[in-house]
C-alpha cells in the first residue's frame, strides 16, 4: 500500500531525457532576437501597470517576461557544475536586470503620474512569505521545465514569483529618488532570484542530473559554502521582516477589537478611528461632549484589557455639543440677515416696478390724448418730490404731466386737456405744463 502511494509521487516516468532538458535550458537562457523584444515589452508593460495601479496589466507583464530562463539556467548549471553555462546564464541575467532598471527608470522619469499606488508599495516590504512563494514556485517551474507535461504551470509560476514588477518598482525608486523603494524592491527581486535558482539546484540534485564537468571535492565544498552564505544573507532579513509583519497583523487585530468595543463611550459616538500599526498608535475621534482627562485614562485602561499596554492613544474632538450650539446661533443670525436682505430686494423690486408703471402711464396717456387731441405730439408723466423750508424736511409728492403739441392748441383746448388729465388720473392737484 505504501509503495503504491509513493508511486503516485514518482517523477521518473514523466522526466525528459537529460539531453532534452539541457537543450531546453540552453534555449531559455539566450536573450536575443524575439526574446529580447519580449523582455523590452514586458519592462514597459509592467511599468505602465505599476504606474496606473492595474493588476491585470502587471499580470500580463509577468506572463510574457523571459527572466525565468536565465535564473533556471544558473540553478541548473550550479547543480551540474557546468561553469560555461553558468557564465552565459549570469551574463544574460545581468543584462536583463540592467536593461529592466534602465528602461523602467526612464519611463518613470518621463511619466507625469508619480504617485505610489498599492501595487508599487506591495513590492517594497518583502518577508519570509515571499521566500516561500519563490521556493515553491521555483520548484513547480523546474518540474514543469524538466517533464513532458507542461500544462499551465509556467504561466502560473510566472505570476506567483513576479520577477518583473520588483525590477520596475526599483526603477521607480531611482526615478523619484526614493531609495527605500529601490532597495526594498531590489531585495524582493533578489529573494525571488535566489530561491528560484535554489529550487532548481535542489531538484536537479534530487533527480541526479549528470555532472557536466569534473570538479574536485574541495571545489564542491567551496561552492556549497557560497550557496549557504547566499541563502543565509537573503533569508535572515526576510525572517525579520516577516516577524514585523506578524506583529503588525496582531496589533491591527487587537486594535480593531478595541475600537469596536468603544464605538459608544459615555454616550458619545466614535465618528472615526485610525490604526497605525507601524507607529503602534490609535487615533479616536468622538462626537459629543469633550473628553476629560478621566475619560482618556479610562480609555487607556480599556486598551490594556486588549493587550495594548504600549499603544499610543490620540484623542481628537469631532462635533461637540458646544460647537452645535454655536453653529445654531450663527445660523439664526444668518437667517435674520437673509430675511433683511430679502425685504430689501422686495422693496427694490417694487421701486423698479413703480418706475416701469410710470413709464407705461406716460405711454398710455399719450395714446389716449392723441385719440382726443391729435395735435399732442408727446407726453411726460412724473411724480417728483418737492422739498421746501416750510415742510420740516418732509418732501411733498407732486404729479406732473408735460404735454407737447404742434403749437395749434389754444387756451380753451389746453384747459380741456388739463381737465381730462385730472379726471383720468383722479388727481385735482395735478400740475400740467404745455410746451410747443
TrEMBL record:
Keyword Protease: no
Membrane-crossing segments per the record: 36-52, 58-81, 93-114, 126-146, 153-175, 181-203, 223-246
InterPro entries associated with the record: DUF389
Alphabetized Pfam families for the sequence: DUF389
Superkingdom of this protein's organism: Bacteria
Keywords per UniProt: Membrane, Transmembrane, Transmembrane helix
Full protein name: DUF389 domain-containing protein
Amino acid at each position: 500500500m505504501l509503495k503504491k502511494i509513493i508511486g503516485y509521487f514518482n517523477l521518473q516516468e514523466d522526466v525528459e531525457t537529460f539531453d532534452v532538458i539541457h537543450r531546453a535550458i540552453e534555449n531559455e537562457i539566450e536573450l536575443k532576437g524575439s526574446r529580447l523584444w519580449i523582455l523590452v515589452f514586458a519592462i514597459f508593460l509592467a511599468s505602465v501597470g505599476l504606474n496606473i495601479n492595474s493588476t491585470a496589466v502587471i499580470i500580463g507583464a509577468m506572463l510574457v517576461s523571459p527572466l525565468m530562463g536565465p535564473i533556471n539556467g544558473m540553478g541548473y548549471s550550479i547543480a551540474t557544475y557546468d561553469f560555461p553555462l553558468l557564465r552565459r546564464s549570469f551574463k544574460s541575467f545581468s543584462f536583463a536586470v540592467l536593461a529592466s532598471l534602465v528602461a523602467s527608470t526612464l519611463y518613470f522619469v518621463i511619466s507625469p503620474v508619480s504617485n505610489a499606488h498599492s501595487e508599487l508599495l506591495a513590492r517594497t516590504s518583502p518577508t519570509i512569505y515571499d521566500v516561500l512563494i519563490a521556493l515553491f514556485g521555483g520548484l513547480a517551474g523546474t518540474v514543469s521545465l524538466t517533464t513532458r507535461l507542461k500544462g499551465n504551470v509556467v504561466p502560473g509560476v510566472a505570476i506567483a514569483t513576479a520577477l518583473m514588477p520588483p525590477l520596475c518598482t526599483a526603477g521607480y525608486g531611482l526615478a523619484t529618488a526614493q531609495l527605500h523603494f529601490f532597495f526594498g524592491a531590489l531585495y524582493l527581486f533578489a529573494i525571488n532570484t535566489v530561491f528560484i535558482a535554489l529550487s532548481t539546484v535542489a531538484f536537479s540534485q534530487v533527480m541526479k542530473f549528470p555532472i557536466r564537468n569534473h570538479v574536485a571535492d574541495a571545489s564542491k565544498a567551496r561552492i556549497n559554502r557560497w550557496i549557504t552564505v547566499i541563502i543565509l544573507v537573503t533569508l535572515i532579513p526576510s525572517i525579520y521582516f516577516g516577524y514585523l509583519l506578524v506583529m503588525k497583523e496582531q496589533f491591527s487585530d487587537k486594535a480593531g477589537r478595541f475600537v469596536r468595543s468603544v464605538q459608544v463611550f459615555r454616550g458619545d459616538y466614535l465618528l472615526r478611528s485610525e490604526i497605525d500599526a507601524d507607529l503602534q498608535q490609535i487615533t479616536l475621534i468622538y462626537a459629543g461632549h469633550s473628553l476629560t482627562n478621566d475619560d482618556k485614562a479610562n480609555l487607556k485602561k480599556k486598551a490594556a484589557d486588549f493587550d495594548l499596554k504600549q499603544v499610543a492613544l490620540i484623542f481628537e474632538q469631532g462635533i461637540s455639543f458646544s460647537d452645535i450650539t454655536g453653529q445654531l446661533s450663527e445660523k439664526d443670525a444668518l437667517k435674520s440677515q437673509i430675511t433683511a436682505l430679502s425685504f430689501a430686494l422686495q422693496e427694490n423690486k417694487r421701486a423698479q416696478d413703480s418706475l416701469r408703471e410710470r413709464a407705461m402711464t406716460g405711454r398710455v396717456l399719450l395714446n389716449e390724448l392723441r385719440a382726443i387731441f391729435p395735435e399732442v405730439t408727446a407726453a411726460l408723466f412724473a411724480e417728483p418730490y418737492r422739498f421746501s423750508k416750510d415742510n420740516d424736511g418732509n418732501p411733498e409728492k407732486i404729479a406732473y404731466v408735460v404735454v407737447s403739441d404742434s403749437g395749434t392748441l389754444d387756451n380753451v383746448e389746453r384747459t380741456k386737456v388739463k381737465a381730462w388729465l385730472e379726471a383720468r388720473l383722479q388727481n385735482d392737484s395735478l400740475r400740467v405744463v404745455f410746451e410747443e
